[in-house]
Design brief:
Blueprint (H helix, E strand, L loop, with lengths): L2 H12 L2 E4 L1 E2 L4 E7 L2 E8 L6 E4 L9 E6 L4 E8 L3 E3 L2 E3 L5 E5 L4 H5 L5 E4 L7 E5 L4 E5 L15 E5 L9 E5 L5 E6 L7 E4 H6 L13 E5 L2 E15 L2 E11 L10 E3 L1 H4 L2 E6 L4 E6 L10 E2 L2 E6 L4 E7 L4 H5 L6 E5 L2 E2 L6 H8 L6 E8 L2 E8 L1 E2 L4
Parallel strand pairs: 4-11, 5-10, 16-21, 17-20
Antiparallel strand pairs: 1-13, 2-3, 3-4, 3-8, 5-11, 6-7, 7-10, 8-9, 12-13, 12-22, 14-23, 15-16, 15-19, 17-21, 18-19, 19-20, 22-23, 24-31, 25-26, 27-28, 27-29, 29-30
Length: about 375
């Protein structure tokens, strides 16, 4: 091969590869091809595998099974061997990768755009990858690219060392004002600002063990729904970034992993352009929005779940002093509709939570049945935060 042609080929191989993605309200979505089948997926660094797709999508016959672990539990799912994987014009080596085939989830409704499943950290683990929220694209760098040579100013840019724990995850330190440490994963798939556990906060003295939270809710994880709260935390340092105040989602069960205190999620991470170099155990953060906090989410103070026995949506809990409580909604009432959307069919927990959630100050219309009597309400969402 002529020298000039060799040089051109070498330069092309060393050039970064860019792949666009879409940024939704609480997730990023990209197009991919799995075993030749085109799919749209939510990118989730908190999922250690390659892809998790709806089992209604045909990417091949099942070749095995896998145990999936989330915050608090485990579930079993069939898998399909991945023979080819492509993200935009980036060809990914699929050696050892499997597609997890899960029961259908209304991803498109949850993320506000067409979505067939989830793509996980395994896909980028062997690449130096930038998640550029500012320009809405992935940048895959050649292995010669070394972010450890960058010098952070620790005001807008930060260079963080990963902790020597976890497999197929990016685990780093979060510090309290008193200097106590939490181990938290970088998790683009967590739609909240941050999610931790009551027992973890007790350990670092951020939870008053003698005081129960006033406002409770339910959080959805792969293994089911668990009791949760919104809690305001001040003077935290997240992955080296000072955060004066923020609202976290706290769940009332211990972690399924002894190494993890939870995850830092999308509402924090979307403020940064993030370069992940797993081989060198470093993460580069560039704060492009000049924002590090979050606005407390709006809520009605009620939680609802679909009852397979009764084939209806039942209100599971109503917190005192909340819009739902003040309106007279009771635990055990049937929830018939949300903003005129009928709930008579099977409704997933994630979809219910998405329909009930919204910015503080926004309004929502509900129809319920209390002891057979139809009730209609128009409620304003409030920031229900436990200080």
């Amino acid at each position: 091969m002529p020298l000039l042609s060799s040089l051109i080929l070498f330069t092309a191989l060393q050039a970064p590869i860019e792949v666009p993605f879409k940024v939704g309200e609480d997730a990023l979505i990209l197009d991919a091809a799995v075993n030749g089948r085109k799919v749209s997926v939510m990118f989730d660094t908190g999922f250690g595998g390659a892809v998790d797709l709806s089992n209604t999508i045909n990417v091949g016959e099942p070749t095995g099974s896998i145990t999936l672990r989330d915050f608090v539990g485990e579930i079993q799912a069939p898998t399909v061997k991945i023979n080819s994987l492509k993200i935009g014009n980036k060809v990914v080596d699929p050696t050892g990768m499997e597609a997890v085939m899960s029961p259908p989830e209304d991803y498109s409704f949850i993320y506000g755009t067409h979505c067939d499943g989830i793509m996980g950290f395994e896909v980028i683990k062997n690449n130096i990858t930038e998640i550029n929220f500012e320009k809405q694209k992935f940048i895959f760098y050649p292995n010669s690219f070394d972010i450890t040579k960058r010098v952070p100013d620790n005001k807008k840019t930060f260079l963080v060392k990963m902790l020597p724990i976890g497999h197929n995850a990016v685990e780093m330190s979060v510090a309290t004002k008193a200097g106590k440490k939490l181990i938290m994963a970088l998790d683009t798939g967590n739609s909240f600002f941050a999610t931790s556990h009551r027992d973890s906060l007790e350990r670092v003295e951020l939870w008053d063990t003698n005081k129960e939270p006033k406002f409770t809710s339910l959080a959805g994880v792969a293994s089911g729904a668990v009791v949760s709260w919104n809690k305001k935390l001040d003077d935290m340092t997240i992955f080296g970034v000072p955060v004066p105040t923020s609202t976290w989602d706290i769940i009332d069960l211990p972690s399924s992993s002894a190494d993890s205190d939870g995850t830092i999620g999308f509402q924090f991470l979307k403020n940064f352009n993030i370069v992940i170099d797993y081989a060198r155990r470093r993460v580069w953060l560039e704060n492009w929005t000049n924002k590090v906090d979050n606005d407390p989410p709006g809520d009605l103070g009620l939680s609802a779940v679909y009852s397979s026995a009764g084939k209806k949506v039942v209100i599971y809990n109503v917190s005192p002093g909340t819009p739902a409580d003040i309106a007279g909604i009771k635990k055990g009432d049937e929830l018939l509709s949300i903003d005129a959307t009928d709930l008579s069919g099977i409704v997933s927990f994630k979809k219910l939570r998405k329909m009930l959630a919204g910015p503080a100050g926004s309004k929502v219309k509900l129809a319920t049945s209390h002891q057979g009597n139809l009730q209609r309400y128009e409620l304003e969402r409030k920031a229900l935060v436990n200080d």
